[in-house]
């Protein structure tokens, strides 16, 4: 699948916004701590990925009812669903000048419908590489990789699942709207977008 930037301006994938608030002290402090032990930008990207994947529990897995969407809140409260964790990872990577896009998959929700799943793509060596910071659990073994994808899930086209080729500089409005409107995770689960 060819990944398609939604803007040709690569600097858009380094920008801060309301959700990817990489100028926030919590994001800057976390980035500085991770960068201090990294040998290079690749090592930093891997460390940031593993930090978000492993140190910020997916709220569905942990039973946390809070909804986070701003990167600084995800890192400060240490909770979030896939979209929120993708925002946090994007902020950490952009804080260290690594171009990062948000991207999505359409997956079955287990109840006969579909839901959008959030990922990031990092740009190294002139190409985009998708990464899934969702968090591992039994049956899910995502890993940071620039040599072949190691995502949490591989979409099944026969089930109506699909990889979305778009690389977004900012969270998709459908995703951000659902996160911002949800008072808690059970409400969010009923209002997650099933398409972009």
Automatic annotation (TrEMBL):
Coiled coil: none annotated. It comes from the Bacteria. Pfam families: Transglut_core. Residues 29-133 form the Transglutaminase-like domain. InterPro entries: Papain-like_cys_pep_sf, Transglutaminase-like. PANTHER family: BLR5614 PROTEIN-RELATED, CONSERVED INTEGRAL MEMBRANE PROTEIN. This is Transglutaminase. The lineage of its organism: Bacteria, Bacillati, Actinomycetota, Actinomycetes, Kitasatosporales.
């Amino acid at each position: 699948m060819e990944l398609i930037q939604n803007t040709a301006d690569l600097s858009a994938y380094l920008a801060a916004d309301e959700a990817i608030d990489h100028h926030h002290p919590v994001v800057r402090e976390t980035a500085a701590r991770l960068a201090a032990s990294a040998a290079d930008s690749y090592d930093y990207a891997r460390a940031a990925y593993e930090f978000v994947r492993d140190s910020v529990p997916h709220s569905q897995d942990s039973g946390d009812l809070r909804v986070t969407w701003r990167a600084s809140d995800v890192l400060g409260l240490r909770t979030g669903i896939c979209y929120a964790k993708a925002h946090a990872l994007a902020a950490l990577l952009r804080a260290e000048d690594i171009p990062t896009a948000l991207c999505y998959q359409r997956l079955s929700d287990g109840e006969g419908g579909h839901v959008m799943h959030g990922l990031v793509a990092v740009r190294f060596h002139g190409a985009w590489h998708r990464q899934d910071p969702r968090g591992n659990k039994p049956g899910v073994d995502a890993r940071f990789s620039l040599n072949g994808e190691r995502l949490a899930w591989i979409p099944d086209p026969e089930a109506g699942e699909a990889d979305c080729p778009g690389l977004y500089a900012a969270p998709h409005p459908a995703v951000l709207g659902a996160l911002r409107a949800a008072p808690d995770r059970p409400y969010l689960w009923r209002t997650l977008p099933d398409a972009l």
